[in-house]
Amino acid sequence: MNEPMLKKMEAAPINSAEFFARSKTRLNFDVPPGLVDPNIVPRTGDAGNDRMLEIVAQEQPVRPAAVLIPVVDHREPTVLLTQRSPHLSSHAGQISFPGGKIDATDESPLDAALREAEEEVGLKREFIEPIGYLDLYGTAFGFRILPTVARVKPGFKLTINEGEVVDAFEVPLAFLMNPENHQVHSKEFRGMERSYYAMPFAERYIWGATAGILRVLYERIYLA
Questions:
Q1: What span, in angstroms and rounded, lies between the C-alpha atoms of 220 and 208?
Q2: Where would I find the Nudix hydrolase domain in this sequence (predicted)?
Q3: Which of 75, 114, 143, 218 can pair with 139 through a Cys bridge, CB separation 3.0 to 4.6 Å?
C-alpha cells in the first residue's frame, strides 16, 4: 500500500438546504440495468479498477445490493454510518452504510435499503425521505451496490442488531465532502495497480466501497 495522496478536485462548500436541493435535482429513481446485467460493468475512471471489475464480472455472479446514505438533517448535517460485525463473511469489521443484498421479496433497491436500515440499526422509515439513487458501484467481491441518498429527520432512536453491526455513529457531512480529506491509496490486483479512497475520521477508518461511494456523492453533488 502506498502513502496516501489527496485527489485534487476543488468545489465550493454548500449549505444543508443547497445539498438537498441539488440532490433532488441531480438524482432519480431509475434503476440502472448494470445492477443485474454482468455485461454492463460499472466504470470508475480508474483503469486498474475498471479492469478488475471486468475480470470479476467474468468470473463471479453479479450480487445486487443496496445501501442507504442517511444524511441527518441537523443544522450541521451528518451521515449515519455503521461498523460491521467482526464475524461476517464479507467486509467484516469495516465501516459501512446500512444496507445489504437485494432479496427477491424486495420491491426495489430502495425498498431493500430501507429494510436493511431498519433491520441493522432500527432506523424507522417514517424518519426517512428518500431522494434518489447515486451511481452504481462495483466491488471486487462481485457486489453491484446501488446507493439511495436520503434525508433523515433528527429525533430517531436506534436499536443495534449486533448480529450484523456493532456500532452506529454520525460523521459530519462537511468532513466527508471536503476533498482535502479524500486520501487515495493503491493496492495490487493480479499484477495491476488499482486505487481506492480512504477518509480517516478520529478513530474510524473509512475506506474501500464506503469511501468510494462518498467520493461519488461528492462528485455528483458538489462538483458542477
A1: 18
A2: 61-197
A3: 143
Which domains can be identified in the chain, with CATH numbers? 16-174 (3.90.79.10)
Question: Within 10 A of 28 (CB to CB), how many other CB atoms are there?
Answer: 10
Strands (DSSP E) along 4-124, which ranges? 5-6, 63-72, 78-84, 95-96, 99-101
Per-residue pLDDT of the chain (224 residues; tens, 9 = 90+): 344 444 455 555 788 899 999 999 999 999 999 999 999 999 988 888 889 999 999 999 999 999 999 999 999 999 999 998 767 656 657 899 999 999 999 999 999 999 999 999 999 999 999 999 999 999 988 999 999 999 999 999 999 998 889 999 999 999 999 999 999 998 888 877 889 999 999 999 999 999 999 999 999 999 86
* CB of 138 closer than 8 Å to CB of 60: no
CA torsion 43-6-4-149 (nearest 10°) is: -50
What's the start-to-end Cα distance of the chain, in Å? 32
In order of 67, 97, 112, 122, 187, the CA distances from 118 in angstroms are: 12, 12, 10, 4, 34
This model's pTM is above 0.70: yes
